[in-house]
Design goal:
- The chain is an alpha+beta fold and about 220 residues long.
- It is built from eleven helices and four strands; from the N terminus they run βαβαββααααααααα.
- The chain has a four-stranded mixed beta sheet with strand order 2-1-3-4, covered by helices on one side.
Length: about 220
């Protein structure tokens, strides 16, 4: 069996996408923690274009970008499929994955923004949550994949865990469960799944890490 390695960072939502997919498939892998301030020769070799994580290495061959990696995993290991078999359902799933990927930039906008920039980012977050509530989650049972987690759930995972951490770091309240009951129910179901629950970055550790990073960033901006 070809050796599977994953290069990632402990705080990145994109790395956890791959971790969950591998665990849902029951695939053993070696995890390699990367320091993005001091990138390893392996990372620079495997991802010379973007020089970012995650990178999946399978049989010595690197695959980059989390969504591309998830699709690769689903094709190589067909057990516990992450995408629907029906062509229309698959196309709909890919649409929402693309939507979630595009909105992932809101994490950085919110974290790095200040004043009007931050207010604009909050507005974009609320608009995205409204789309999830009124469109993406209509007719959804427990997960986007029905009774089982699929790739759409994984794509939206930054809403389930990282948004709450950013709210704590920034002293904001963006997500109000009573305004987004479908999103709230989905978050509870998603984070209650054993594979997700047992493989999440510690919220307190994340908050401390991000608060320190933001303080340094704002100090740098003011200077």
């Amino acid at each position: 069996m070809a050796v599977v390695k994953l290069l990632g960072t402990w705080f990145s939502p994109y790395g956890y996408r791959v971790i969950w997919a591998l665990k849902l498939k029951g695939i053993l892998y070696e995890y390699i923690e990367e320091d993005l301030l001091n990138k390893s020769p392996s990372l620079l070799q495997y991802n010379p274009i973007h020089k970012q994580v995650p990178v999946l290495v399978h049989g010595g061959k690197p695959i980059c970008e989390s969504t591309v990696i998830l699709q690769y995993i689903d094709e190589i290991w067909p057990q516990n499929p992450l995408l629907p078999a029906d062509p229309y359902d698959r196309a709909a799933a890919l649409f929402w994955i693309k939507f979630a990927d595009d909105k992932g930039l809101l994490m950085s906008k919110l974290y790095r923004g200040d004043g009007e920039e931050q207010q604009a980012a909050v507005k974009e977050w609320l608009e995205m949550l409204e789309v999830m509530e009124e469109h993406a989650l209509i007719g959804v049972k427990k997960f986007f994949g029905g009774d089982e987690i699929n790739m759409v759930d994984i794509a939206f995972s930054f809403v389930a865990h990282w948004l709450g951490i950013l709210e704590d770091v920034l002293g904001l309240e963006i997500f109000k469960p009573h305004k987004f009951p479908r999103v709230s129910s989905w978050i509870q179901n998603f984070k209650s799944s054993p594979i997700i629950k047992d493989n999440l970055p510690d919220a307190d550790k994340m908050s401390t890490f991000l608060k320190r990073g933001r303080e340094m960033m704002l100090t740098s901006k003011s200077n």
